[in-house]
Amino acid sequence: MSSESEIPKPDQEGEDESSKSASKKAAKKEAAKQEKLRRRQEAALAAAAASSLSIEEDPLAANYGNIPLQDLQSKVEADLKAWTQVGNLTHELTEKEVLIRGRAQTTRAVGKNMAFVVVRAKGFTVQCVVTARPDVVSKQMVKFAAGLSRESIVDIHGVVSVPSIAIKGTTQQVEIQVSKLYCVDKAMPTLPINIEDASRSEKEIEEALEAGEQLVRVNQDTRLNYRVLDFRTSANQGIFRIQCQVCNIFRQFLLSEDFVEIHTPKLIAGSSEGGSAVFKLDYKGQAACLAQSPQLHKQMAICGDFGRVFEIGPVFRAEDSYTHRHLCEFTGLDVEMEIKQHYTEVMDIVDHLFVTMFDHLNKKCSKDLEAVGRQYPFEPLKYLPKTLRLKFEEGVQMLKEAGVEIDPYGDLNTESERKLGQLVLEKYGTEFYILHRYPLAVRPFYTMPCYDDPKYSNSFDVFIRGEEIISGAQRVHVPELLVERAQACGIDVSTISTYTDSFRYGAPPHGGFGAGLERVVMLFCGLNNIRKTSLFPRDPLRIAP
């Protein structure tokens, strides 16, 4: 989902139509399912309220119960040092008293004198044991703990202990012997989806079917409808923590290379890329649209002598694309920089930036990658210390030798990209490479033609696992050529006059690239759908939640 202009692939229309039809049917079915579930939830809540009894008279009642609202209204300042993160509960804390907060993932009573509560926080889980003890834990407290609804938020005081047998089903291999337990906020008795169901891998579901057992499979639309619950799975916690690090590395690397972070407008006149795939709107009586990319403004920043700039921000595309890798709104990772001699200087930044990023993710995000891999198994990305670069003509030749005929002046379709990725992996041992010197006809109007053959351009795409994640190029900085190219691409030059005029005041040779954050994470983690890496996806059929 690069922020460069993307011309639809020849084979995309068929995929779009079939996906569109299936998606509409699924959406209608899901709406009916949601209404039925809503009624069931209301009935469960009413039943719970009707059957709710005050805690029996208990001399130890102060050690447990629901925290009153007034105590949650910032009544008393807390000493944060008194709290322990669930992920930090280790053997080193044995016999130490701790205070934790998390969600009651599961509860289980063992008779009237003991209950187990598995508490989860930030993807980590610990088993808490509530055992009736004189002057500490009453039977009523055990009953209260066992009756907690799943996903309720609880505060637990207790002492850390190490069980004699390894604990299955929790990340932490210690227990907490509970002395106090308070419910901060109760979840509904019946949830739309169970976290346990949403955390299952396809392999687990298939193995259960082979064994004659049917497990619940939570489909994608249901996940997205109840995204707040879906976020709570370990895989999703991992995905979005990895995404956070991608942005962090992107920013820190570029700052270290003397780039300046900028913030360009998302409300613009005309269209930033040309074409009809824009969200049009009325801007105080004037025609406007949402920016398809920060392309024009980041180039204007270069003309304003910033030298090197980057931006992390929203990008909008009104394309009717119903594929696994397209969104109507995504987060763009955009770069623009002066060029001293050659557009390979831009590719050098791409090379160093992404190799640094991949190295960091593999080293610093190992636990998050493991969490993703448990639910969505994938092979670690294969990449080289020095990124492979191939000319477009070389890629076409490789495909031709493999029996795939490609128009030498056309674009690669989705299947050709995948095939070339397979060939590159077999020949060079990498799933990350740069393909450059694309035909000019398939690139945006602001792309600089090659000096030795105007049918080609000083441009490039970057691929991961056979799919494009980055588009970049040297830009046209000569105003007369820029206007000529815009008109040739059918763009009303009057709508981009402030852009073209920027180059009339003296502009340095420059180039840049754009990537889609969600697509980078999707392909690095080997995921099959970009909606898994978008916090709240926006596609042609979804604008909520």
Which helices and strands, and how do they pair?
Elements: H1 12-51, E1 64-66, E2 97-110, E3 114-121, E4 124-131, H2 139-146, E5 153-161, E6 175-185, H3 195-198, H4 202-210, H5 220-225, H6 227-230, H7 234-256, E7 260-261, E8 267-268, E9 280-283, E10 286-290, H8 295-303, E11 308-316, E12 329-338, H9 344-364, H10 366-375, E13 388-391, H11 392-401, H12 414-428, E14 432-436, E15 459-464, E16 467-474, H13 479-488, H14 497-501, E17 510-516, H15 517-524
Parallel strand pairs: 1-6, 4-6, 7-11, 13-14
Antiparallel strand pairs: 2-3, 2-5, 3-4, 5-6, 8-10, 9-10, 11-12, 12-17, 14-15, 15-16, 16-17
Low-confidence stretches: 50-54
Q: Can you name the CATH architecture of the largest domain? A: 2-Layer Sandwich
Helices, by number, come to 15
Per CATH, the class of the largest domain reads Alpha Beta
CATH superfamily of the largest domain: Bira Bifunctional Protein, Domain 2
CATH topology of the largest domain: BirA Bifunctional Protein, domain 2
Give the N-to-C terminal Cα separation. Answer: 21 Å
Strand content: 15-25%
Shape: elongated
Q: State Rg.
A: 28 Å
Proportion of residues in helical segments: 25-40%
